[in-house]
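@channel anyone free to eyeball this complex?
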Amino acid sequence: MKTLRLTALLVGALALSGCTRTINISPDESVFKPSAPVVNKAVAYYISDEDRAKKVVTPGGGGDKVTYAPYGELEGALRKVLKTRYNDVYLLKSPNDKAYIAEKNISYVFIPRITTNSSSGSALTWPPTDFTIDLECQATDASGASVWQTRIQGKGQATFSEFKSNFALAAHRAAEDAFTQLQRQLGEAKAPH
Amino acid sequence: MRRGLVLALLAIGALSGCTAMAPEYRPNYDNAQEFRDSGEGKLAVGEFTPDKSDESAITSMRLRGSSMESPYGTYSAYLKHALERELKESQRLDPKSGVVVSGVLLSNTADVSSFSVGTASMQARFMVHRDGKLAYDKIHSAQHEWPSSFVGVKAFEALFANYHITIQKLIASLFKDAEFQTAAK
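replying in thread with the prediction:
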């Protein structure tokens, strides 16, 4: 009886170990408040449908992994940060849609490239304790010429007592860090304005 | 002898008696951009109510013995909040507008009883009143399905990642309707 109970528990543990757990890395967008004067220009950003739908898998703890959609779940943060700096923000269906760019009088097009990674120091709990977001952002003018680019790494950490109520906390902190840095850089003199 | 194995399997397959909160709505920015490009008229969002006085009468959730609550109180309120959010992203939301969109939630379902596929659907009647006169009255429906899991926890994670897409599709159906675009101008 005791051996069979132990076997049943091990079967349960094995079924759940090595699992890929779904998290959502979207940060709280209300943290991105205007920090520089608004530039009275319309800008746009471009994320392909493939990138928006793409899901990635990165390490968690206890042998588990986590999966999420970096572009789809961070698009809101990018839009919000651009809206704090520029008067109007559009979504482009194609990066070279000259007719739309001209019709809406768009001055700059921002194109993000996002890579992520995660890890955990815990052998027992699956949520990541460490999360990084590498954000490259290029801006082109209406003619398509590159006018600005930046590379940012956002980092986030969370302990067990912190992520008990939010399994993606390390990721949220990394996202807030990355996009706060982007917001600050967009407010600098050398950024498109 | 068998009881331990059955209990372990139940723990994997089910989340009996759990009540979870659905994640907050995330807008579809494609939806919002297309609606923004379709016109400039601003809309206010009026009341959204369930078809029956008790919303549970139009809600069907087969969630392996568990339940999922709306983060906005009711699912009618969820739909209202989602529409407000999409209109805000479209820059076409104005609470003071004389053009008001309201609705009646007719049905709301979610089903993760299958070990391979999760599904959700929603049907609602949308009305537009322009200065008090009815300008639009139509029913829209949307369905969405996704890969699910035998493991209860993973089935719920997939449900939380996908439920809001059903609402996105419902609002997309509304926004793409040429008659709604005309009523909203």
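from a first look: The CA atoms of residues 83 and 137 of chain B lie 16 Å apart.
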